[in-house]
Amino acid sequence: MLLDISKLSRSTFYYHLKQFSNVDKYEFEKKEILKIFEYNKGRYGYRRILIELRNLGYKINHKPC
Fold first, then answer.
1. Is residue 13 part of a domain?
2. Three-state DSSP class for 45?
């Protein structure tokens, strides 16, 4: 009945319900990216951040810089 009221399909409801229980596998990397970005006062772009992450030992992207 609630799905009819909200005009939401069952599959969409269960998809979003499942997404709440998933754990973000890049949680620590995202925090490290924010630290690098904020430490450099927002001046670093993705290439420089990727280089810093590699210097710290993270392996994020298989592509060379």
1. no
2. coil
- Is the pTM of the predicted complex or chain greater than 0.85? no
- Is residue 2 in a domain? no
The C-alpha atoms of residue 47 and residue 52 are separated, in whole angstroms, by: 9
Beta strands in 1-65 (DSSP E): none
Element (DSSP H or E) covering residue 49: helix 46-55
At 58, which amino acid appears?
A: Y
Range of 65's domain?
A: 24-65
Digit-by-digit pLDDT tens for the chain (65 residues) are: 778 888 888 888 888 888 888 888 889 999 999 999 999 999 999 999 999 999 999 888 777 66
